[in-house]
Amino acid sequence: MKLTSFQKKMFALTVLLGILSTMQFRAVNSGYKYMSIKEMYANSIELESQNAELVQLRAKADSLKVKIDEFQKARTDVSIDYENVLQLEIENTKKVAGLTNVEGPGIVIIVTDGTRELYENERPDVVTVHDIDIRAMVDDLRNAGAEAISINDQRVIFNKSEIQCTGPTIKINDQVFAVPFVIKAIGDRKYLESAINEPGSFSESLRKWGVFVEVNTSINVSIPAYEGTMENQYAIQ
Amino acid sequence: MIIAILGIILGIFIGLYIPFEFATISSLYISVGILAAIDSILGALRSSFEDKFDSVIFVTGFVVNAVLAIALSYLGDKLGVPIYYAAIFVFGTRLFNNIGSIRHYSIDRFRAKSREKHK
Fold this sequence. Notes:
Order of helices and strands of chain A: HHHEHEEEEEEHHE
CATH superfamily of the domain at 103-223 in chain A: Protein of unknown function DUF881
Distance between the termini of chain B: 28 Å
Pfam families (chain B): DUF1290
Family (chain B): Belongs to the sbp family.
CATH class of the domain at 103-223 in chain A: Alpha Beta
Radius of gyration of chain B: 18 Å
Shape of chain B: globular
Radius of gyration of chain A: 34 Å
Mean pLDDT of chain A: 84
Oligomer: heterodimer
Low-confidence stretches of chain A: none
Low-confidence stretches of chain B: none
Subcellular location (chain B): Cell membrane
Shape of chain A: elongated
Structural class of chain B: mainly alpha
Distance between the termini of chain A: 84 Å
Mean pLDDT of chain B: 84
Number of domains of chain B: 1
CATH architecture of the domain at 103-223 in chain A: 2-Layer Sandwich
Number of strands of chain B: 0
Largest sheet of chain B: none
Helix content of chain B: over 70%
Largest interface: A-B, 30 and 41 residues
Largest sheet of chain A: 5 strands, antiparallel
Keywords (chain B): Cell membrane, Membrane, Transmembrane, Transmembrane helix
Strand content of chain A: 15-25%
Helix content of chain A: 40-55%
Strand content of chain B: under 5%
Membrane topology (chain B): Multi-pass membrane protein
Strand order of the largest sheet of chain A: 3-2-7-1-8
Number of helices of chain B: 4
Order of helices and strands of chain B: HHHH
């Protein structure tokens, strides 16, 4: 059979088309995807953050494994007093939650209304202590690493204590207090003191407005336990 | 026609067993090249129907079209402008035009043949 020039060219081109299409098919279906450089950059950042998260999760898993080992040992090993281990854990949890009396080095802050003369037409609000002032100071103390905080011997715990304005008084843990407020905090004394005295802190503004704020460090501050009830109504395990 | 089908089948087999694979990044250029190939095949079919087939024009047309299309898409990729749309658009339009003319010629031929039979 003699092929014409047209048929030869046609054959060559169709073979080329077949090869190209098949290889393209293979490339597209090999699980890879065409991607621009921008997308690659975004994906590489995503990959990095995912890897960092993975490392963190691995570390967490390791620490949990250690804990599981501990518990396993406590369960099988007779020589280990597992009751004691659990007891320690319960005590620790209670301490963190604020259900025990605690003692330690810390600071005592006294906050009371200012006694300066008011300017003309100035509202007395400016020199009185408000709930928001107390709240801001408590937040400052927490940020400075306070491990336990009380106001007028009412323990401030993290999700139950309210600090609420009730006219000239402030309600803390459902009890109403008037000035002066004595805020006690246990923690690193230097950090806590500087959290109140530092320039730019909320207490500095208070002092500028005329509210009386005094900070004393103490070797031993005692803070009572939270006395209210703690029961979750909605958040169930 | 049989030659074309045979060619495609042979090409598919070669493509399946070739131990070489395109990088994913070049798949855009390959797709443009495939379009150029289809365009040339259909153009050749059409010109053969019109008895105007010229092998030099055919080969140069295929090579230049494919190279130009690939170069344009490369440039567009570097500039962030999807210029390969132009190649796809032009090839696509020509593809349909060519198919249309091929259809016209084949139907005309078929009708002429059947008329001869009836006579």
